[in-house]
Amino acid sequence: MKVFGWSDGHGGVFHYRIKEPLRGLRLLGHQVQTGSALQLKLADVYDTILVRALHNPHESRGWLALAQQGRHLLVYDLDDDVWAWHPTDQSAQYWNEQRRLHAEINIQVADLVTTPSPRLGRLLSQLNPNVAVLPNTVPRWLTSMTRPRRDRFVIGWEGAHQHVHDLELIYRPVFRFMVNHPDVEFHLWGPERHTWLPSIMQWLPPGLAGRIRCHGWQADVPSYYRSLSMDVCLAPLEATPFNETKSAIRIQEHSALGIPVLASPSPAHDGYLVDGVNGYLASSPSAWEKALEAVYRNPTLGEQLGQNGRRLAKAWTTEEQATVRQRILEEAHDERSRTRAGANARAGTKPTRPPTARAIGATTGITTVHAPALRRPADG
After folding, report:
1. pLDDT at residue number 360
2. CA 205, 206, 209: angle at the middle one, nearest 5?
3. CA 16 – CA 243 distance, rounded (Å)
């Protein structure tokens, strides 16, 4: 296959959903390339076009033109529920109805839709029945990387701006734990060096603020991995529709690094955080404190949880999962070829676009199902 990853080439989502998956395909001998601009003439070099969350009006016109030509396998990837942002999140204002509409149309004309979340996959299937769940992966070298040693016990958290409100689940138990243990530090990785932290510093006990360290995002994901030095990672998630469709990448990364994870029970963590194996689930302030105490007081336990995590993470590596992605794409190519052949035989002519499967508006100028029509998937 010859796969083009159409993306601006920046940030973690580019790494997880474009760069790292294409690295896996390259290891299997496929030709892959990424770029921020895709001219229709350039597209003819490739048989597969992969985009993530495409919603820009200008670029959407190019996507629809490719769909009308019908010469490529069009793969649309989405890893955020853009219909369920937290109302206080800046993304809720950015993803207005027009941008969602462009995204929905682009999803509908795709040959294949991919997502790391089974729950988001069920939601997306209302727009396009051809959905494949392809989880995020981590590089194999992460499972054997030696982490820097620390003089103090470090609690760690990382998250993008849309997850800052999740920290409200753990502020009080973490700060109570730190008051009881003066040798504990709390390190946070995230955007804008956590400019929101001063608001909570006002009510922290004396001396506690000096034990909170903030780290901005690194230049690239491998550098970010190497910066993660902690004894335990916290992965709180509020029980919101948006969070329930998230991936388990934080569990995967920290388990690969040998770091125990304490996490909220959530569909996003199902299958990755095994309670008592590579970390603990915590659903109340007392449960967070109890889990922290267990790992703090028993370094051997923390080491064992970390080793268990590394064993689990070997199945989540890009190298291990590359053949799965390859199979999904090859099956999509085969299905597309069969569809086109059948259409040609029935019509006696080559169609500009296979008429299959796009149950909702498979032409340019389509009417689309938009946000209010999407039904939240039930559990199970």
Report:
1. 31
2. 85
3. 18
Tell me the C-alpha distance between 349 and 302, whole Å: 65
Domain 140-316 has CATH 3.40.50.2000: yes
User: Residue 261: is it exposed, middle or buried by C-beta count within 10 angstroms (0-12/13-18/19+)?
Assistant: buried
The amino acid sitting at 329 is: L
Of 52-61, 328-337, 339-348, 355-364, which range is least confident?
355-364
Name the CATH architecture for the domain at 2-137+318-373. 3-Layer(aba) Sandwich (3.40)
Q: What are φ and ψ of residue 181, in 5° steps? A: -135, 95
Break the chain into its structural domains and give their ranges.
2-137+318-373, 140-316
How far apart CA 308 and CA 139 sit, in angstroms, is: 17
User: The pTM is what?
Assistant: 0.88
Strand 184-190 vs strand 153-158: parallel, antiparallel, or unpaired?
parallel
CA–CA separation, 43 vs 63, rounded Å?
11
In this predicted structure, the answer to whether residue 348 has a pLDDT above a threshold of 70 is no
At 236, which amino acid appears? P
Rg (alpha carbons) of the chain, rounded to whole number: 22
Dig out the tokens for 101 from the structure.
């509409």
Whether residue 233 has pLDDT greater than 50: yes
The two domains 2-137+318-373 and 140-316 share their CATH topology (first three levels equal): yes
Average predicted confidence (pLDDT) for the chain: 86
